[in-house]
Amino acid sequence: MAISQAMCTSFKKELMTATHNFTAASNVFKLALYTSSASLGAGTTAYTSSNEASGTGYTAKGAFLTSVTPTTSGTTALTDFNDLTFSTATITARGALIYNEAATSDPSVCVLDFGGDKTSTNGDFTIQFPAADASNAIIRIA
Amino acid sequence: MFSVDVKPTVGTVSVETTNNTGLSPEYWTERVVNKIVSISDNADPMVKAQAEAFKDTIQQVILLYIKQAIASDRATVAGLLEKQGHKQMADIIRRI
Q1: Which residue of A62, A78, A112, B58 has the fewest CB atoms within a 10 Å radius of its CB?
Q2: What ipTM was predicted for this assembly?
Q3: Between A and B, how many CB-CB pairs are < 8 A?
Q4: Which range among A3-7, B1-5, B49-53, B81-85 shows the weakest confidence by mean pLDDT?
Q5: What's the number of CA atoms in the CB half-sphere (13 Å) around residue A24?
Q6: H-type alpha helices, B16-44
Q7: Which residues of B touch chain A, with CB atoms under 8 Å apart?
């Protein structure tokens, strides 16, 4: 069991079949949190409830992300999400899955590894997305 | 024979957590400023210095108004609590 940060292989295929649309919206992509017992990686194809985190301030399937319309920097295409906060939350999570709630079967986008268990106790649990540039953005196609 | 290679990459997120409190106005100010102002490592030193100065200035302005917004919201919450007869809770909110 492990969480390996990766862009899901199925997502790469789905880019070619127009399954995903990252144009700015707040009700398409979701982020779900997972415990260290989860098994997630490049082979993850869709949202799963297996070993999903639970606790006060967190509901199953996670929360919606606000996407930022894709742009380009040099020859790299990139997109971004606004930071996501679970407030007044008591949660322990080791990683996350971004998936498309608006598409059939909740297809996965990417797996995020936090590098270790992160815990909030009756406080904020905030996922901070990287700078939206060609070197750091959360999703880049070079 | 032609082929085109593309390389999709996923960036690295960081996680901030708190216990029995929320994240500070200073944290949110830094996040806002970093979203608004991005300074290239390769920028001309003069341009870079100007951009850094601008960043510092708006950081102070944003922090001030975030704190004022928090104070306004607390005043609203405290007012509602007091109106409902919860004066002690209202006083706690005002003291935070």
Answers
A1: B58
A2: 0.88
A3: 86
A4: B1-5
A5: 4
A6: 25-36
A7: 6-23, 31, 34, 38
